[in-house]
Predict the 3D structure of the following.
Amino acid sequence: MKDGLRQSMAWLHTWTGLLAGWILFLVFCTGAASYYKDEITLWMKPEVHQSMTRQVAPATATAAAVAFLEKRAPRSDRWFIDLPGEREPTLRTMWAPPPADPAKAGEPRQRRARLANATLDPATGEELAAARATRGGEFLYRMHFDLHYMPVIWSRWIVGICAMFMLVAILSGIVTHKRIFKDFFTFRPAKGQRSWLDAHNASAVLALPYHLMITYTGIVTLMFLYMPWGVKAVYQDERDKFFTELRQSVPPDPKASRIPAALTALPPLLAQATTAWGDGSVGRIIVNHPRQTNAMVAFYRRDGKDIAVDQPAMVFDGVTGALISPPEPKAAPAAHTQGVMIGLHAARFSSPALRALFFIAGLAGCAMVATGLILWAVKERQKFTKALARGGRVSFGLRLVDGLNLGAIAGVPIAIAAYFWSNRLLPVGLAERPAMEAAWFFGAWGAAAVLALVRPTRRMWQVLLGAGGVLFAGLPVLNAVTTESHLAYSLSHGLLQVAGFDLVVLALGIGLLFAAKRMGSPRVKKEVKEPEVKQSKPVLARGAA
């Protein structure tokens, strides 16, 4: 490490950014997409688009959901009802599968037990059976902190460590950057390393408050995973009890009574919650131990009223309908602070304009990480200038970084686009369809990564960026060919979520195609000295410059 504070911080900034950069690029890409996970899920279920044009009263949707759950899951000890909203027009239901042993009904389940679910028509309560099975935007949302094909606890530790590296890289970059304001307005194209440094500085400074916020709050979101010792010392294995007391929520009876009782009508209870919070303010209903004497019904306010992610609830007795908890419980200061941190990270409170701003800032984060990775390779290649002029080759380490850069920066967009293509091309009734969509994601990414590692050249940059551009730009065409919700139809019928998806992926595709074309520009080729062009085989510097 070099002497001096700024030199030391520069060394720290370089290596923390490089070591975690490839995972951080995936996290930023999927995290930016997560701001529109509801819209993505809606686009990936074209069979429900017709129901979006009908307005249904919340009381009607609630009664329809209860009638469906009483038939489909009468023995379940927990029901979830997500009422239609502006971003999600369908009626979604989930329920905990009944235990194999009825005597254990209501006892705590193994953590992360998978819930059964069904999407309903809010007007009729009929299941939209024709709707294709897909995880939609939830897959990308989970990908950005749970990854895939590995235990969740490992994934979150990996992402958390990379986020900590990211925070160190941001803070050390601020110390290192002595002309942070001036360089924000400086960009010199077609100048090789200087251009990549300008692009890195501009994308970092443009959204610096966002980068600091999103990295810090991402770590705080999982703080009890990374620092569990205090909770462990006081609550031992009763983590659920800790979170119940932290949020001052009303816990349900841990054990079902197994004594039958009629469930009270929910629309009158919904009316009380609506009076307290306003029309359309109830987002979720949870029924614990339905059709039993200790049934409990909780109405949760829809996201968007407060920054904090934990919304207030009104809890009623499920048999008598008596109010158990007030509509506005006072959260403990620690719980409220954590809720605000998580809310800032997830941005569920945001208006359409603010959500778009968060999305653009997320794309700036992708650009910041990508340009930083490429800048390291460009600078490192300069050490081999003389060797390349004599017909030598770069080191294995630099060639590996070249391939990893190409596999991540060009491969992740290909994987995301392939995931969307699989949604339209796979048979609707295919068994394990969501798993197959995920397999397309990783299959496309794996193929791109292999090509990148085998031949990390300028030409391969053009090929992979062009492939990603064609896949993204072709999605609106694919949508028009395979469904009735083409862009003209969605715009004319007010399906703004569907139309917005088509327009955004079209813009992303055009951007990737422009980047691919720029990689083959003669002006860019002239930036590399002639001996490097003629004799170097792994020419990421030419592709990156």
